[in-house]
Amino acid sequence: MNEDKLTIAMAEDKSNQCQHNYMITNTGFLDMRQQTLCKRILRNNPEVKGFFYGGYADAERRVTVFTPDYIGAETEDDLQEYFLTNGQDNPLVLIRAKHNGYKQLSHRDYLGSLTGLGIKREAIGDILVTDGGADIIILREMTDFLLTSYGKAGRTYLELTVEDINNIIIPEGLVQEKSDTVASLRLDNVIAAAFGISRTNAAEAVKKGLVFVNNLQTEKVEKLVNEGDKLVLRGKGKVVLKEIGGSTRKDRTFITLMVMK
User: Fold this and answer.
1) Residue 1's pLDDT is what?
2) Which one, 12, 61, 171, 197, has the greatest CB density within 10 A?
3) Residue 64 class from Cβ within 10 Å (0-12 exposed, 13-18 middle, 19+ buried)?
């Protein structure tokens, strides 16, 4: 069984477990491409509700959470609200790692030290690096192992604490505002403007599956982009379409983008 089929089979299994055992179930962490593969699973079983959840609103690595009807969740916001008052049911835990080293540790330092302990990638969510530490989202079942086994990233010693996931520290990224005009709000046009590439190259990137809209892969160049949509071009970065403006005399559309560095 190839990796894609394995991802889908895992999600189907968790959906069936939720239905038959009437309990919340979840997959491991999925990257954006894997989330796209699992999207149809969320619609296939009318007996359960399925949501992508990563611990905070803009998470990129997310688990699929399946909930029985007694939870009463209809949206991801509803699920977040449920976890606020039923934290024991939340499949994710926030580990805060602090250090007093002079060297600033990178995302790679933290991830490499975690996988070096034998922790599988699907057990690790987003790692948000801040000055003097990082907030690391993990599967709940990994908590005890990390607290007892994870003490160093490289040569730097770490101090770990479990924190309320709602108190996650989201670092302020370097954001640059960019204005441009596009012939239309088709995905290939907006990607070309956002990343400074030709429309032909943008269209090729979309068709190759390198473009994600709101964390979901899309290969349709004609897809229309909406205000507030998050766009990712793999290997290039992330932008948000902040505003759609009026038209120029040549009937092009003004757009404002927030480019994340």
Assistant:
1) 56
2) 61
3) buried
